[in-house]
Amino acid sequence: MRRALIIGGTGLIGRATASRLIAAGWQVDLTGRDAARMPASLTAAGARFIAADRSDAGAVRAAAGDGADLIVDCLCYTAADAAVLLPLARASASTVMISASAVYVDAAGRHVNSDAPPDFGKPIREDQPTMAPAADGDYQSREGYGACKVAAEQVLLDSGAPVTVLRPGKVHGPWAARPREWVFVKRVLDRRPAVFLARRGADVAQTVAAANLAALIETAAVRPGRRILNSADPDAPSGLQIARTIAGLLHHSWDEVLLDETADPALGRHPWEARFPIVLDMTAALRLGYVPAGDYLTTVAAQVEWLTSAAAGLQGADALAWLSDGYFDPFLDYAREDNYLAELAG
Ligand SMILES: NC(=O)c1ccc[n+]([C@@H]2O[C@H](COP(=O)([O-])OP(=O)(O)OC[C@H]3O[C@@H](n4cnc5c(N)ncnc54)[C@H](OP(=O)(O)O)[C@@H]3O)[C@@H](O)[C@H]2O)c1
Q1: pLDDT one-digit tens code per residue, 171-192
Q2: At 332, is the pLDDT very low, low, confident or very high (cuts 50, 70, 90)?
Q3: Ligand 1 neighbourhood includes 10 CB (under 6 angstroms)
């Protein structure tokens, strides 16, 4: 039986990947710090949890043992992380490192975390320039995230080991640490009469279902190689299309308040804001034989279902941990919206 090890495996990407690989007949081991986060459904399907902190190189090595047919690293953020992964990658048939499309820069050097928004002008291919690598940067900062990912990518790719670097867009799926779709699900649960969208909801920031990432990981596993691949949904929905998709899935109707550039910039904000479209070109993955699990509409249903059940308290308190960090507050400023509507009416 082929064995896969998923480092940081009990989260969004790891769960989807484990489910997919188990269905395809793999033995799957998942690492994490907290055994309580191991999904019962995966344990029941034969997956094993291994406690190993990513910062403990010995524990990560022990989890890999003599190597695996596939190693997936969901926690490789820096060159130092990559250096820990490298000997495991050399001993394994195929390794997938989860990087990010945040590494790309446009002709003016702007990236998705810049103050000035990037303008790529067309779908981004893997040969698009990236940020300069930062071997010692702060990967948790806006400037450091992409630069540290590039440094990690280079350690792995320069080694010649069979490592596939994946550069996903904005990932969606059940158990997301920051489920962006909540901004629209929450509005439906609150029976809001209107959805507000800045720039008429036309912004596009590439999405990717964890299920599509998992499909690409399986493709890379059966075709080991040293390469970089984008990971994206087959479509690239706009903010307006995402709002409509979610309202449709939840059988809700609302007025769409499509704001133009003159509107209060605090109104109509959402997590897919992008002054210029950000779309990933998937030609390279498709050439390798990747078949997506589904488009945005098909795949986002799993996350919407999970969010409604978590909000109803059916998934345990852990499922809502992300609610407390304030990230969603600027997207759900109902008082400001009500004032706008009252002024309009009055
Ligand atoms: N989400 C996105 O939109 C997005 C976009 C592009 C790229 N990415 C990349 O995707 C990766 C994150 O994957 P994900 O979204 O699946 O993450 P996730 O949902 O946050 O899951 C992370 C997993 O790693 C475990 N973990 C966290 N810290 C750990 C540590 N120090 N040692 C061992 N285990 C640890 C967590 O469990 P415990 O906490 O119990 O340990 C959990 O199982 C990152 O490399 C990120 O750069 C994400």
Answers
A1: 999 999 999 999 999 999 999 9
A2: very high
A3: yes
Per-domain residue ranges of the chain: 173-207+235-278+294-346
* Entry pTM: 0.97
- What dihedral angle (degrees, nearest 10) is formed by the CA atoms of 261, 265, 270, 274? 50
Regarding the beta carbon of 171 and ligand 1, being less than 6 Å apart is answered yes
Nearest to 73 by CA among 150, 153, 129, 135: 153
pLDDT in tens, 221-235: 999 999 999 999 999
Ligand 1 pocket, residue 13 CB under 6 Å: yes
pLDDT at 320 (0 to 100): 86
**Residue 277 CA, ligand 1 centroid: distance in Å:** 26
Query: Is the separation of the CB atoms in 218 and 21 below 8 Å?
Result: yes
Residue of higher predicted confidence among 77 and 322: 77
Residue type, 306: W
Which one of 3.30.1490.190, 3.20.20.370, 3.20.20.140, 3.90.25.10 gives the CATH number of domain 173-207+235-278+294-346? Answer: 3.90.25.10
Cβ within 8 Å of residue 7, ≥6 positions away: 31, 52, 54, 60, 63, 71, 72, 73, 74, 75, 76, 85
The alpha carbon of 161 and the centre of ligand 1 are apart by a number of angstroms equal to 23
Please give the share of the chain, as a percent, with pLDDT higher than 70.
Answer: 100
- Residue 34 CB less than 6 A away from ligand 1: yes
Q: Which residues contact 323 (CB under 8 A, 6 or more apart)?
A: none
